[in-house]
Predict the 3D structure of the following.
Amino acid sequence: MTRTTAIRIGFLAAALTSAAGAAAQDLTITNARILDGNGSVIEQGSLIVRDGRIAEIVRGQARQTVGRAIDAGGRTVMPGFIDSHRHIIRGDGDVWLRSSAAAQFQEFLEAGFTTVVSAIDGPQLLEARRRIERGEMQGPRIFAAAFLPLSAMPLGGGGEDAARTDPSRSGRPTTPAPAIPREATIRAVENAAAAGYDYIKTLMIQTPNGPEVDTLKLIVEEGAKHGLPVITHAVSIQDTLAALEAKPAALVHTPHIGHLGDDPEAVRKIVDAGIPMSSTLSVFVPHFGEDNDPLFRDGRPFPWHTISSAGQGPVNARILWEAGLVAYGYGTDTQWPPKQSLADELRALRLVFSPRDVVTILTKHAAAAALKADELGTLEPGKLADIVIIDGKPDESSAALLDVVMTIKGGVVVFERT
């Protein structure tokens, strides 16, 4: 085991168990309608938590009460929500950490999110995570990705949100991008591991005879040496297929440029790869402000030349779902407050998915997309007790997901609506 691998294991253990240690509560939740995330429904049951983990789920009343007793009042008890692709820091990182982080993290908890994957944020996020783990700040379980480029091609958006001018949509490169020296990529992976990141994120925009696939293969290989799985941004069918050649651990977007219905071979390749995918459909669904103005995720007027993705993304998602995609998990790729982002993503998901599908996408499949399905995403004995109580039946109406009355993270009640 390398030193950086040992560092990675230490960070992962801390992230997964910080809320399940000394501060964890024993709980008994009774009079609950339980959705376990695996598709089962217990219309009236009880759930017991010991030392921050789920110990038992029973039909009817629990045989005993341990710790704090919580009467769910017939409400729905389900796994905590997971956003498998989010951007957290708003504005200057130091200012955010000093003045906004605590309030923003509380918003996640109040919206039911117990786990959030940061798919590129500044180093201040790692410090915020440390404060959460030390109990100095309350917040969801945070996993963070370091960004490594696949070529020396500039990826900036010219001072604006890069999704507005994404070359995957139009004006694709016609010449190969300059390569990054192999040694520089290896060193960047080592630095990401030493800093305590959980993943490496890459962005695939394939250029003709360019270095992107080879560089991604190198990052996947080097990342494995340090316990750093690679998650890859690819938003067109062409770039998704190129990324698959390197076998990343997860795809952090639904391909929304190109119609998979016209390319059954591409569907087969994506599904057969066995790689989970994040949804992020709401990026190209207008967010409506208080004045009913349609806004993009950067808060500026919506770029209508991107609107085709609002339809193509959900269509491609359902095509992959029907073909047997291993996991399709909730992710937003936004910076709106989490409850607003949830409402926006639900609008897109409900175009092609049932309320029961959405519950799976938000929990079990989101855990798989975050590469944490062994500990999170379902209510099963032995898993971390990340739980939300909902006033309604989200498997019958997805709107109920917006009505969270209690959030429990690792056995600790972190939000309780009075």
